[in-house]
Design a protein that fits this description.
The structure holds two protein chains of two kinds. Chain A is an alpha/beta fold. Chain A has a single domain, classed as Glutaconate Coenzyme A-transferase. Chain A contains seven helices and 14 strands. Chain A has helices spanning about 5-15, 30-40, 80-90, 130-135, 170-175, 210-215, 235-245, and strands at about 25, 50, 55, 80, 95-100, 105, 110, 115, 120-125, 140-145, 180-185, 190-195, 200-205, 230. The model of chain A has no long low-confidence stretch (mean pLDDT about 95). Chain B is an alpha/beta fold. Chain B has one domain (about 5-255): 3-Layer(aba) Sandwich (Glutaconate Coenzyme A-transferase), CATH 3.40.1080.10. The chains are: A alpha/beta, B alpha/beta.
Chain lengths: ~260, ~325
């Protein structure tokens, strides 16, 4: 009998599988960090974790609470700074970045700045932080978020961090280097982007989820290719490592 | 160089490098005793209306004692460098100390959530905001430290973050490619917390530097708060470790546990209970006022604040957490 799991565990396990061994990943706190740590302990022991505040390849003893707290450079190979980390992205040495946000649109643009009028906002969020920099400069942007209609919108009210902007060719036109959103992992499915139009596309449905459900929770028309994969559920090994080694205090997996 | 596009929001500080050079030309370079109290540094270097930068990373290696003193001195109309700011931002919002803001990361406390009071202040429309990113603000400081009028980054392009910034899109004179030019930023004053400093201001911090190497060299006035004062010989004995040399520094304040309730690498972890108490009490403005009176306005000094937060007993627990020693 396979172990039961919650949707946060599902998202973390699925996201961890996309991080290849020997690559670099810039992460924030919470679920993205858990996914990177899990990946290190399962398929990608040589995955290099980077934190924007300066931590390079730490041996994370536990989940950090801040991307600048001392855990992020615990037994690291270097304790550097913002300029070092961001110039590493800018010269093309960071493969993956993990982002979240209040809104995400069909071209993978992210809003983490404001809802309502910019000058008198209804809700003010933190803003870019390092997210715009990562989304601009890393090769592949990964996004982890809960799937809902209020989050997946036709057009972001404010584009904090670039996806494919207005579609094919728009990043190049704006002057951004090659890159952009790669996979979006939610509690329902994994989405990618259509090569031609750069619009969001369903790639893999989680166990028990049908494409109608995903579409119903999305505020724009998703591209559905003829063949949609089935996401493999979290394995017992993944779940055991996640629960016992990555997040024993249930800081992230307890939130589901 | 062709300017192809530009952000619409104001640049709060003059990016002219020759005016900055003129200032630095006159800045004293003598190796003198710069020890002061937090009260004295706020009085002398942080007047109403000045533009302030804070070192560290929000709730990691922050100069809490000086920020508290800024609140107690009822400073108003400051400009603020909202770079990786979290608890420092929360504090300055509690005092409504600033009215113009360069924003890269504000309002949030990372994994801990959003500060209700900081949100209220930012949603009131009272603060003039210009949008940036963590990298672009660090690049603005780096340009200032280099004594040039702008830095170049490849972020922000094509987004509303750019539109609401004060950056410009320029065409590279060599390749024809587009880049974002960001204006140099010389804050009037910066405050940075470090592990050790001598009385002249030579400073050593350990762990990540965030943007403090750049901030220390961009700020016109620099206040150092230090966990402990060391002798000048201790600095000279290992000059490789010096992050900030004395001629950048205007004042040195010795504040043991000075980053509390934030984390201080290798010494003590953040006090998550106290930070959570802030977030909770902020939901009710009346209760929040009482809370601020109890912890900030009603205490005379930082030591008294530490006492009210649990004193040495609490700090010893945070030391254990930081060094991952079993309880």
């Amino acid at each position: 009998m396979a172990l039961e799991y919650n949707m946060m565990e599902m998202m973390i396990c699925v996201a961890s599988r996309y991080l290849e061994d020997g690559k670099t990943v810039a992460v924030g706190t919470g679920a993205p960090c858990a996914a990177a740590m899990l990946s290190q302990k399962t398929q990608s022991p040589n995955l290099i974790i980077l934190f924007e505040a300066g931590g390079v390849a730490p041996m994370l003893p536990q989940m950090p609470i801040s991307v600048g707290d001392s855990r992020t450079f615990f037994r690291a190979v270097m304790a550097a700074g913002m300029i070092e980390m961001m110039t590493t992205c800018s010269r093309g040495q960071v493969d993956y970045a993990f982002l979240g946000g209040a809104q995400i649109d069909k071209f993978g643009n992210i809003n983490s700045t404001v809802v309502g009028d910019y000058y008198k906002p209804k809700v003010r969020f933190p803003g870019s932080g390092g997210a715009n920099d990562f989304a601009s400069l890393c090769w592949r942007t990964m996004i982890m978020t809960v799937h809902s209609k209020s989050r997946f919108v036709e057009k972001c009210e404010f584009v904090t961090s670039p996806g494919f902007l207005t579609g094919a060719g728009a990043r190049e036109e704006a002057g951004l280097p090659e890159g952009g959103p790669y996979k979006i992992v939610t509690d329902l499915a994994v989405m990618g982007f259509d090569e031609k139009t750069k619009a969001m596309m369903v790639e893999s449905l989680h166990p028990g989820i049908e494409v109608e459900k995903v579409q119903a929770e999305t505020g724009f028309k998703l591209i559905v290719p003829q063949k949609v994969e089935r996401t493999a559920p979290p394995t017992d090994k993944e779940l055991r490592i996640l629960r016992e080694e990555v997040d024993p205090l249930k800081l992230v997996i307890g939130r589901a | 160089m062709k300017v192809l596009d530009q952000g619409v929001n104001p640049i709060f500080m003059d990016p002219d490098p020759d005016k900055a050079r003129e200032f630095f030309r006159k800045k004293p370079r003598a190796m003198t005793d710069k020890r002061m109290t937090e009260k004295e540094v706020v009085e002398k270097f942080i007047p109403d209306g000045c533009y302030l930068g804070i070192g560290g990373f929000g709730a990691n290696r922050i100069p809490t004692a000086v920020i508290h003193e800024i609140l107690r001195a009822r400073r108003k109309n400051l400009g603020f460098l909202g770079h990786t700011s979290t608890h420092d931002f929360e504090l300055l919002c509690a005092g409504k100390c600033f009215n113009r803001l360069d924003a890269a990361y504000i309002v949030g406390l990372e994994a801990r959530g959003l500060s209700p009071n900081a949100r209220r202040y930012m949603e009131s429309g009272e603060v003039k905001v210009t949008e940036w990113t963590n990298y672009s603000l660090a690049a603005r400081l780096r340009a200032a430290a280099e004594g040039v009028s702008f830095g170049i980054v490849r972020s922000m392009l094509g987004t509303d973050t750019f539109k609401m910034s004060g950056a410009k899109v320029i065409e590279c004179p060599f390749t024809g490619k587009k880049f974002a030019a960001v204006p140099a930023l010389w804050p009037d004053v910066a405050v940075i917390h470090v592990h050790e400093a001598d009385m002249y201001g030579n400073s050593v911090f350990r762990g990540i530097s965030v943007a403090d190497m750049e901030l220390a060299r961009a700020a016109k006035h620099l206040i150092i708060t230090a966990e402990r004062l060391v002798t000048n010989f201790s600095i000279r004995n290992n000059p490789t470790a010096t992050s900030i040399p004395f001629y950048l520094v205007d004042a040195v304040v010795e504040v043991p546990y000075g980053s509390y309730p934030g984390n201080m690498p290798y010494l003590y972890f953040s006090d998550e209970e106290h930070l959570a108490a802030w977030m909770k009490v902020e939901k009710d403005p009346k209760e929040f006022e009482k809370f601020l009176d109890h912890y900030i306005y009603g205490v005379s000094c930082f030591e008294e604040y530490l006492e009210r937060c649990g004193g040495l007993k609490k700090l010893k627990e945070l030391q254990k957490l930081e060094t991952l020693v079993e309880k």
